[in-house]
Amino acid sequence: MKTVLRSLLFIALVAFSAGKLRAQCTVSDIFIQNIRNVVPGTGTCTVTFDATFNIANNGGNKYIFIHAWLQSEYPDYFQCVNGNPTLNGSIAAPDAGDLGNSFFNIGIDNNGPIPTILTVYPPDPSVTLTTVNSITRVVLPDGSANITLIGVTTTVSVPCGTPVVIVADLWSSQSSNAQRAHCVNCGILSTAGYISVTGFIFCGNPPTYSAIVTNNTGIALNGYYRVYADVNRDGYFTPVTDTLISGPITYGIVAGPATTTTVGGSIPVANLGQNIFLVFTQTTGTGTGASRVILLRSPLCSPLPVSFTSFTAKRINRSNVTLRWETATETNNSGFGLQRNIGNNVWETIAFIRSQALGGNSSSMQVYTYNDLNASKDISQYRIQQVDIDGRSKLSDIRTVRGDGQKGRTLIYPNPSQDGRVNVVFEDREVNRAVTLADISGRIIRQWKAINGNTIQIDNLKPGIYLLRTIIPETGENTVEKIVVGGIK
Fold it and tell me: Read out DSSP for 141-209?
């Protein structure tokens, strides 16, 4: 039940965002975080959350207001959708008649050194303002300011979990009594209930993120997402201060409900220990252009003693495999234990290579190579055990090498698989690959973007027949392999 309820948590401004306007009273980039206290009612849903947005840090934004409606009830007062929007001009502030059916109204007095929440709407005291517990304002490095609203509570006239599109207007006034709207960001779209997302950040070298996106509707959903690092670790998405690390990346989910796709990728080592924001933007139907923000909280990742920039294993001829790895930084590094596994799930250490860095410390790139005498006709796996001077160690990702005489096509093993787990070994070429896994009906159940290693492992497959499609975007090369699970022929 909690999962169903939380799918509507973003119903009050999940990711209402607008481009920054060139004006003294610019207001933009509004997002919410920390949703809680979800209370279903009879045909309603009440939620509490926090919201952030940016303003020009000057005397122009004397008063700031936010209003929100269900898309079917949006009045378009500022003519954002059905005409020429009022941007950076002057228009009479909306009154109660203009704000009919709005479920969300917030007013802010930004005249003094500390902003305060209004309890009365100056243009029309008959308009009821939404409850907000507190407000903060922080000046950002670019000279603008970020405002955070803490403890916003609102009620929406749809049951919790209903897929809806929300439309919001954000405007500010330079007049002393807020009777005129001078800066307007209007028709800001957000979705709620269309998708639900669960994901995690994994400490590693490099760290990675992975998330499952579930389609809660009966229609196919398409869109793209961007990945940001929470640089100041405050748990609030602020585009001015947070770092874009990836995207836009497209995604697609076939008609649901409960169909899924998987998104994921690597995180720069420089962002180790920082939260990750996934900003999804929909490109389907009435939700086109609407966004939502997903926060993935980082576990306590210790700084890596060694930062690997690459690790490859390649068969050079019938009896030799060359291992090559590079490090960007090394801290108290004793060296590297090279480990090999040939088809029996038993790892053996074949060599130990001492660190080339003086005293085990380096901030410049170090390059290492090792030639392994390996004439096995079976698949071989390699990994590196990095060992600190104090004896602690960490394992690298695994690299897979074909056996002597095995052709250069994609290898899948075991195939058939009896336990729903298979390993996929691609050609040894260092290229980016896009990979999709579909069932026999063509329904996509897994996706991987920009894979640059030569191995992936697929788990938790149900009995059946699957098709694995690999595309190399640079060349357009496209291959399809069949996977059998459960002994089906």
Answer: TTS-EEEEEEEEEEEESS-TT--EEEEEEEEEE-STT--EE-EEEEEEEEEESSEEEEEEEE-SSS-EE
Evaluated on CA atoms 228, 231, 233, 236, the torsion sign reads negative
CATH number of 411-485: 2.60.40.1930, 3.40.50.150, 1.25.40.10, 3.40.1260.10?
A: 2.60.40.1930
Task: Annotate 145-160 with DSSP letters as a single string.
Answer: EEEEEEEEEEEESS-T
Closest-CA residue to 146 (of 21, 28, 232, 49) = 28
CB-CB contact of 67 with 104 (8 Å): yes
Q: For residue 449, give both structure tokens.
A: 């973007």
Residues 6+ apart with CB under 8 A from 284: 219, 220, 221, 222, 223
Q: How do the residues of the chain divide into helix, strand and coil, expressed in percent and rounded to 5?
A: 5, 50, 45
Confidence tier at 14 by pLDDT (50, 70, 90): very low
Domain with CATH 2.60.40.1930 in the chain: 411-485
- Give the number of other CB atoms < 10 A from CB of residue 358: 8
Sheet holding 433-439, edge to edge: 444-451, 433-439, 464-472, 477-485
Tens digits of residue pLDDT in 349-371: 999 999 999 989 988 899 999 99
Distance between first and last Cα of the chain: 40
The answer for residues whose C-beta is within 8 angstroms of residue 14's C-beta and 6 or more apart is 31, 32, 166, 190, 191, 192, 291, 292, 293
Q: How far apart are CA 132 and CA 198, in angstroms?
A: 28
Phi first, then psi, for residue 6 (nearest 5°) are -70, -20
- Say which CATH architecture domain 306-401 belongs to: Sandwich (2.60)
Task: Let me know: does 275 contact 230? Beta carbons within 8 Å.
Answer: yes
* Cα separation, 91 vs 141, whole angstroms: 32
The pairing of beta strand 116-117 with beta strand 104-109: antiparallel
Q: What is the second-level CATH architecture of the domain 195-296?
A: Sandwich (2.60)
Domain(s) of CATH 2.60.40.10: residues in the chain: 195-296, 306-401
Q: What is the pTM of this model?
A: 0.59
- Residue 322 tokens, joined: 């060359």
Number of Cα atoms under 13 Å in the Cβ half of residue 218: 1
Residues 6+ apart with CB under 8 A from 84: none
- pLDDT tens column, 55-109: 777 667 889 999 999 999 999 998 887 655 555 567 899 999 999 899 989 999 9
Q: What are phi and psi of 73, to 5 degrees?
A: -115, 10
